[in-house]
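Worked example 4.2. Below are the chains of a multi-component assembly; read each line carefully before continuing.
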Amino acid sequence: MCGIAGILNTSPGAPPARGSLMRMIEAVQHRGPDGFGFYHDNDVGLAHARLSIIDIDGGTQPIHNEDKTVWVVFNGEIFNYLELRAELERLGHRFYTHSDTEVIVHAYEQYGDKFVDALNGQFAIALWDTRRQRLLLTRDRTGIRPLFYTVVGNRLLFASEIKSLFAEPAVPRRLNLAGLGQIFTYWSALPPTTVFEGVQALAPGHRLVLEAGRMQLSKYWDWQFPSVLPDDHRHEQDIAEELKALLIDAVRLQLRADVPVGAYLSGGLDSSIITTLIKHYTDTPLRTFSVTFEDDEFDESNHQQQLVHHLGTTHTSLRCKRADIGAAFARTIWHAETPILRTAPTPLMLLADSVRAAGYKVVLTGEGADEVFGGYDIFKEAKIRRFWARAPQSKMRPAILARLYPYLKNSPAAGRAFTEKFFSEGLEHKDQPFFAHIPRWTTTQRTWQFLSPEVQQALADFDPYRTIQQWLPPEVAGFIPLGRDQYVEAHTLMSGYLLSSQGDRMAMASSIEGRFPFLDHRLIEFANRLPPYLKLRGLTEKYILKKSVQGLLPDSIRRRTKQPYRSPDSQSFFSAGQPAEYVAELLDPVRVRDAGYFNPSAVTKLFEKCRNGRAIGFADNMAFVGVLSTMLVDAMFIRGSMTAADVSTGNSFNEVAASAATVSTGVVK
Amino acid sequence: MSAAPESKIREFILSNYLFTNDASALKNEDSFLKRGIIDSTGILEVIQFLDDEFGVKVADEEMSPENLDSVNNLVAFIKRKQA
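Applying the procedure described above to all two chains together yields the following structure tokens:
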């Protein structure tokens, strides 16, 4: 796992300067602390920061083909590199390293741009074809590894993180209000949009080719769902067996590494499945890590301990206090490079620190299972709301909603009449692909009341439904309903927030590589073909997945209803009514007014509400975290008034909370 | 007595849900639900406010729009409960 950066002249000009490349790659040194590598010629410069995981001695990048006409820098892993290598060698290709990177250049020679189809992995790739003077940028299917680019004058700059692009003084630093409006609606900007003007994100499953001054963007893979209910005659047990075999193979492939591999254990079903499969089907010694919270509402340590005892793993748990989150949140935003609406990424960043401290570089996690197998409450909600939309006057139908959210202290189902009103929002859109997401987006858009009149004016034309409708591929509207819900979820919240702000960026903050067996594209394709009742049966989520691991997991874990991973939000920034120092500074009315994004008096009222512990709903907490993170993005990336050094040392942040979160490790036999 | 709950409630709604001092932002007959002023978890804060401020306990079956969904409805509800 690594960081990449590069510069391409899109028309003849001075060769990319080594100094520029060096500044760009140094900006993402946390992604690859084990060494730098460079390639340049007249029109292109490639840079690489390495985290050594496979072929520790020989895998230095850039890597080239036999006659050095194709060069590559790459961030990620190609899990099926051994099989691909054997195939390419059979076809006459000669390898000079044992790294997974080298299969990329030979596969490109062999298959042209279609080489991506042969890769099973998580990757962001920059490949330079010297003969055709052609740059190819591509990203994995689900958006695990990031890749951004911008065009300044006659140069295209690209990098794993936006801070590399900003390392070039010529790149303007302006907040993109359209991106902000999207984040304050969908939780993430819709690629290629980012929260910075002129900075584009390469979308998951896409490639961008630059040749002879032309730029061509194309999609090579996407989530596909049937348009009619699939007619699956196989016995359920056979489907479950096939799924189990695929899962075992995905885990086996993703354990490939020349360094020890650990796993996250949340206490929920998905990570329990991964750790159990590692235990039963591989020889890898099991080393697990988890976060615990002082607040019962968020804590899952009982379930974690249950599995630790069951499997006998060597386990580290990190107890995350509210103040730890408040103190580390600025560093979170430095790595995430975007406004976010929850603090949930921060504990995972702290957990990555403790993984690193334990001497590990790679962890497997359960991420993706909910999107692939229909695990989220939003899918259940949508099912009930569709059922209700067929008889909108029914009094009985919405009553089923009360069965959702048993785990929430402040459940939206608490006041029946209010719940019904909330979920009845947008029933008339029942045939739209984004129907499931309307309640979530409506709640999230409550953050808009804090935007300044100027920003509200600038966003006056933003229509959340029309925007997503134009952005989604037309075929999504034809998918079966659960397929539509899953598609929108995978392309907004999952790739734009969970895998990036909460995934790649938090792990990479400590040079930790996350791996996600549930996002093996073979598993996604398998699951997407299944009839919806094998995923959501009644209101039981992930039905077939649970069936496939029957007998492997303790039933109490297997049957447990999903508890989404959450952490304390606005409470994290106040201690006995006192705000963390940097929070008070950034949310000072003068500071807020000068930045221009928010209405200072509204923010002050919100600040007081949170300070007094009266912000208990989602909307207020999202607004608080959204405003604070936007102000941090402004300070760090637009103004440059807060630096990486401030962030990493904790300077100017509250002293009280500077103590590290508590780590405890134990071996359970 | 009747004016006091109304102004307290108005101030609570204005500053806690509309985050403003502008009294024209809220009419006493405005439906909190229809105008999107209070969401389904927000109503729990209103219930806590009624308890803290007026000592009014809201039973589950009383959590209805008729009792809670506007300044006017809240004022009338408090009056009934305190009667």
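Take a moment to check your reading of the output against the notes. Chain B has a mean pLDDT of 88. Chain B touches chain A through 20 residues (CB under 8 Å).
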